[in-house]
Amino acid sequence: MTLQWTAVAFFLYAEIVVNLILCIPFISAHRWRSVFNWRIWSWLSSYWNKCFFAMIMALIVLFIDAVREVQKYSGPEPMQDAKANPNLYDHVYMKLFRAQRNLYICGFSLFLWLIMRRVVTLLNQVAVTVENSACLQVQMDSAFKAAKKHQEDSQMLKETLLEGEKSMSATKQQLKLEAEKLAVQLKAAEDAVRKSNAEVEAMKRQTKGLAQEYDRLLREHHQLQNLQTADDKKDQ
After folding, report:
1. Is the residue at 169 inside a domain?
2. pTM for the full model?
3. Domains held by the chain: number
4. What angle do CA 70, 73, 76 make, to 5 degrees?
């Protein structure tokens, strides 16, 4: 195996190990996101896209070269030469095997390189989604508590209004009884006033009659006095 294909093979093994580590179930996406937020990754982030696309281009070139080698050694001409020369038969199939091996190594390396980037992106998205869902859960709990509190306040207000209505009804009934009592007292007072007025009118009429009787007696007294004076003068 040449140096370039050895490097591709080691790169494939490294990709397999990294993807297996990323798929470990007991390491949460939040922890992976905290790892991805290390300062070294932020320092390498400016070179990450360039490195990613450069590796893709290199793997594509090697993949195309491997395809060319497979087509080269699986064509009719090498097979005819191998049939014509039995010593060349094993050599052709060895070259074909190596070309196919390099094709598989390069293809899987390219595939896992894309998968690894996608896994990292999905882990970040899952971590962000979990954080957002946690925030939404907190907001929902707060909203639920606020709604429950508003419901309790509404129930208390309803009970207070009901008690107020009962109190107002009792107060209204009491005021109605007091109004009826005052009406009875007012009617009794009016009757007493009418009776007092009648007594005053009777006393006025009685006083007027007494005054007239007094005037009559006073006139009779004067007349008697006048008669007595006239008799006295006749006697002299």
Report:
1. no
2. 0.53
3. 1
4. 120
pLDDT at 102: 86
DSSP string, 56-101: HHHHHHHHHHHHHHHHHHHSHHHHHHHHH-HHHHHHHHHHHHHHHH
Contact 112, 12 (CB under 8 A): yes
Q: pLDDT tens digits, residue range 167-177? A: 777 778 888 88
How many Cβ atoms from other residues are within 10 Å of residue 106's Cβ? Answer: 26
Residues 109 and 12 sit within 8 Å (Cβ to Cβ):
yes
Residue 185 located in a structural domain: no
The region of weakest confidence among 24-33, 36-45, 134-143, 175-184 is 36-45
CA-wise closest residue to 28 among 136, 139, 131, 137: 131
Q: Is the pLDDT of residue 83 over 60?
A: no
Q: 106 near 59, Cβ under 8 Å?
A: yes
Residue predicted with more confidence, 45 or 59: 59
With tokens 């007595």, the residue in question is 228
